[in-house]
Q: What sequence folds into this?
């Protein structure tokens, strides 16, 4: 008989204008500014949007974003509400989905938004989503926040298989264990070293890694022009990204 998976209890805390999501511990799993619920508050979560640097802004609303791990739904809300994309979020814990709808302004599902209860590893393997995702955002941590829950080369190969030809994966790598270099090597093995880019760590220790389905080498001027447009259209600090972002190979 299969053992029942125990999922952590979900709660939130408010500090001034910021609401935080927690899974049984003090570790922050996501946040929301109460006066701007559809903006992205945390710096590393903003960096998960760096795939925008590699696509024509005029095509964004025609694309499909998928989040593996809902967190406080910041990425899901931003892609759905601000970018007007088709958006799919995969979350294992039904309490997280309920919390996001009750406390974090996650809209109900509609023709462009689908929040799916499921296992990210199974979704990544499933042929249903193969080559259907333009922007895959992976942020998978348990309540201890010690290391990514899914972090194998096989998992990252499955993630690559989800992507469209010009698709991109962004991953949050964070952990008390020094696992970043190991994770980076697995991503490079799955995508090819020349397709992988990385940010410097944030003050909190989150390092966002970006992997393209097919490697591209945009000129610095192209990236700068994209960054300007991202800032003016969507208010993300894309110019700052370029100072702390480079190919990881």
A:
């Amino acid at each position: 008989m299969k053992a029942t998976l125990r999922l952590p209890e979900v709660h939130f805390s408010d500090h001034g204008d910021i609401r935080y999501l927690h899974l049984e511990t003090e570790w922050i799993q996501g946040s929301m500014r109460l006066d701007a619920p559809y903006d992205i508050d945390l710096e590393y979560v903003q960096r998960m949007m760096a795939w925008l640097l590699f696509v024509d802004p005029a095509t964004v609303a025609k694309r499909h974003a998928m989040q593996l791990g809902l967190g406080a739904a910041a990425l899901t809300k931003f892609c759905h509400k601000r970018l007007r994309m088709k958006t799919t979020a995969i979350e294992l814990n039904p309490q997280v989905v309920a919390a996001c709808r009750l406390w974090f302004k996650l809209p109900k599902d509609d023709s462009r938004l689908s929040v799916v209860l499921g296992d990210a590893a199974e979704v990544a393997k499933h042929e249903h989503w193969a080559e259907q995702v333009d922007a895959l955002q992976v942020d998978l941590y348990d309540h201890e926040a010690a290391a990514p829950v899914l972090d194998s080369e096989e998992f990252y190969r499955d993630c690559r298989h989800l992507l469209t030809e010009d698709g991109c994966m962004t991953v949050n790598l964070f952990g008390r264990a020094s696992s970043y270099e190991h994770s980076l090597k697995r991503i490079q093995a799955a995508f090819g070293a020349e397709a992988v880019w990385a940010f410097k760590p944030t003050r909190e220790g989150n390092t966002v890694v970006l992997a393209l389905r097919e490697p591209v080498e945009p000129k610095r001027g192209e990236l700068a022009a994209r960054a300007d447009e991202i800032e003016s259209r969507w208010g993300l600090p894309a110019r700052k990204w370029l100072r702390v972002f480079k190919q990881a190979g």
Observations:
- The chain has a mean pLDDT of 91.
- Helices lie at 43-47, 74-82, 94-103, 120-125, 153-162, 180-191, 220-234, 238-243.
